[in-house]
Amino acid sequence: MSRKRKDRRSVHGIVLLDKPLGLSSNQALQKVKHLFNATKAGHTGSLDPLATGLLPLCLGEATKVSSYLLDSDKYYETVAQLGARSTTGDAEGEKIDQRPVPDLSDAEIEAVLQGFRGEIDQIPPMYSAIKKDGRRLYELARQGEEVIREPRRVTIFQLELTGRDKDRLHLRVGCSKGTYIRSLVEDIGEALGCGAYVDYLRRTGVSPYLEPEMWTLEALEQRAEQGIDALDASLIPIETALTHLPAVHLTDEAAQRLSLGQVVEAGPLPEGELFRLYQGEDRFLGLGKPTEDGRIAPKRLILHG
């Protein structure tokens, strides 16, 4: 007779995971979900198995705000290996098109980097999760197929050369959602005339979490051994993902009516299309939107606490 599976629990909040090398984002998510024994969990945008670093994971009611982190700006540290391309755009793929690396000055590299700052068109790599006719591109790539991909408009608002190590360029990147660092590095390599692929990639920030304290899987496992309270102390509040939105504080009566789906009065409203809503000073209720007559309607409410 099989053992009865332990009942899942309702736990709500965000874990800032330091994803380890070699795990997919979904594998990391499932490990954390298991540690917390959570009923519901989701991640906020995939990191390649080759990549390490910040992967915000949303548990319980926090999954309602995961899309806002998915759409936010991202920050990376990467190393571009010059002198070849890779079938996958990173160190895991077969090395192809090997070429000599020219004797590049910092000024010449900077001139190339300048051409990639701001809004650029980027063609997504074949090894990506984008779908074509219902199939993931990486599935087609593994079968040796290559299809035409439409370029996407992305913004590179930070691109700095932070160091050089023989034929390796150390870069710091800040970019909009949907940017592929592998494609960026490949394009930089082509502009330098020698090709390049990603040899190292670490995500250091997901707005609004810039240079945050992250938890490794090992640290979370140690906390789990100490008990549920110690583990739950690694969670941060749901509303921390929404600090870019203006806050509106409601009376107890208005908060009660809002929870029933009613439109409520809230006095003069700040500018914006969405608001963080609070009952009193600090009880987070969720998201609201302004109505044409200056009131607030519920948009997405948090059902716990």
What order do the helices and strands come in, and which of them pair?
Layout: E1 13-19, H1 25-36, E2 41-43, E3 52-59, H2 66-70, E4 74-82, E5 85-86, E6 95-96, H3 106-114, E7 118-122, E8 131-132, E9 135-136, H4 137-142, E10 152-165, E11 168-175, H5 181-192, E12 196-206, E13 209-210, H6 217-226, H7 228-232, E14 247-250, H8 252-259, E15 275-279, E16 283-290, E17 296-301
Parallel strand pairs: 3-12, 14-15
Antiparallel strand pairs: 1-3, 2-3, 4-11, 4-12, 5-6, 7-10, 8-9, 10-11, 12-13, 15-16, 16-17
Helix pairs in contact: 1-6
Describe what this molecule looks like in 3D.
It is a single chain. With 305 residues, the chain is of the alpha+beta class. It folds into 3 domains: 13-71 and 209-239, Pseudouridine synthase (2-Layer Sandwich); 74-206, Pseudouridine synthase (2-Layer Sandwich), CATH 3.30.2350; 245-301, Archaeosine Trna-guanine Transglycosylase, Chain: A, domain 4. 22% of the residues lie in helices and 32% in strands. It has 8 helices and 17 strands. The strands form 4 sheets. Strands 1, 2, 3, 4, 7, 10, 11, 12 and 13 form a 9-stranded mixed β-sheet that branches. A 4-stranded mixed β-sheet has the order 14-15-16-17. Helix 1 runs parallel beside helix 6. The chain is globular and about 70 Å long. Residues 1-5 have low confidence and may be disordered.
